Every structure is written in C-alpha cells, then in structure tokens.
Description:
By secondary structure, this protein is an alpha/beta fold. It has helices at residues 2-31, 39-52, 86-90, 111-117, 130-133, 138-142, 167-175, 187-190, 220-240; strands spanning 59-64, 75-79, 98-102, 121-123, 147-149, 178-185, 202-208. It has a seven-stranded mixed β-sheet with strand order 1-7-6-2-5-3-4. β3 (98-102), α4 and β4 form a beta-alpha-beta unit. The chain starts with a helix and ends with a helix.
Amino acid sequence: MKALFSVFLWLYFSFLFAVFFVLISIVFVFTFPFDPYRKAPNRVLATMAKLMMKASPKWKIDIEGTEKFDPEVPTVFVANHQSFLDMALAYHLPWQMKWVSKRSLAFIPVMGWLVWLTGHLTINRNSKSALKKLENLVQPLKDKIPVMIFPEGTRTLDGEIKRFKNGAFLLAHEYGFNLQPIVLDGGHLAMKSGSKIVEPNVNFSISILDPIKTSDFEDINILKDHTYQLIDRELKRIRSK
C-alpha cells in the first residue's frame, strides 16, 4: 500500500511542479517590473504547496498560534527541519515569507527555477560568504516581509532537532529584528530523509511560538540556546498529546 501511494505521490508532485512552473513563469513575466519581492508568483506557489499536502486524504494538519505573529514587526522565523514536505506544510500559514534554502536546490531542474522565480534566497551554508548573503534579507524585513530560516541547516534523520547554526540569530540580533520560533512535526513520519517511500496516514502540526526580542540578549549563543530549548520543549509537548 505504501509503495503504491508513494508512486502516486511522486507522479502527482511531478505533475504539480510541471504545471505550476508554467503558471508561475507567466505570472512572473507579467508582474516582475512592479513586484520586486515577487509576491504574486509566491502566491501561486502557495497554491501548489497546499495542493501537495492534499496528496493523501489521511494527511491532517493542525495549526496553532497564528495570532502570535504581528505582521507590522520585522520578523525572522526559525523552524526545525524534518523533511522535503516542511515548506509545503508551512505554506499553510496565512502570510507570505521569503525562504532561505540550501544552494544545491538552485541546480535542480524546475525546483531550482521555482525558487528563483518566487524570489527566495539560496545560500551555500558551508561558505564564508553565507552570512554576508543573508544581508540581502535586511531590506525585505524592513519592508515587513518576514523571513523563514531552518537553523539546523539540513533535515533531521530521526525527527530530533539538530544543532543550530548561527546565521539566523546573527541576522536578527545585528539588526534588532524579532525572532519567532515555529515548530513543525509530522514530516519525518511522512517522508524520511533519503527515502522515496511515503506514509499516507500522518498528522502534521505547526505551532507558532511567542516572538523573541533579540535586544533582550547580549550574547548570540544564549539567544540561540534559548530558541533551541523553546522549540525542543514545544516539539515534546506536541508529541505528548
């Protein structure tokens, strides 16, 4: 059953990527002169993401805490990273974000083109220039476009949270932007890293935590550890329900 569902899912995803690449390309051509942050193509991508999460009627999504985000405050969201489905899952939140993805995505046909067309940022996390490139997010943040970063830098293999990298915390701390943790769960059960077999019966969760004022922290490592503890504690709470 899982094998059959997996074949269907990858065919379905391939169809969505092909169709929405054409749609997003058309929207981009007609809107890029007056849409510097590519909000219009991103809205179309959000539709694709929501359709992706309808692949199984037994995929259920529970969302908590959306009222905790203030769109008038420049915010860097940080979330744990479990699977390929995390971005599609987070697109169910009722606001647009600029995403930071690993550089290798840019070289994947169609997927990499979609990342570029929708205005998201790719970085080589192992490069010394990665932190410098994050400064490209400063102006969008000042213009009230929130940013999403996975501080682990890569997907977890076992569902547990990996050590956080510094980039998101340095960016938010240096410019005084709020940090707001998001906790994602279910992706590692639906689609394990490195596996093509997909679980058709999964309960996904998204929990938005209270914003963190980075100005309250003098030390970047204390800020990073505090955020890690908040996300880890909330993940344990979600799994205990």
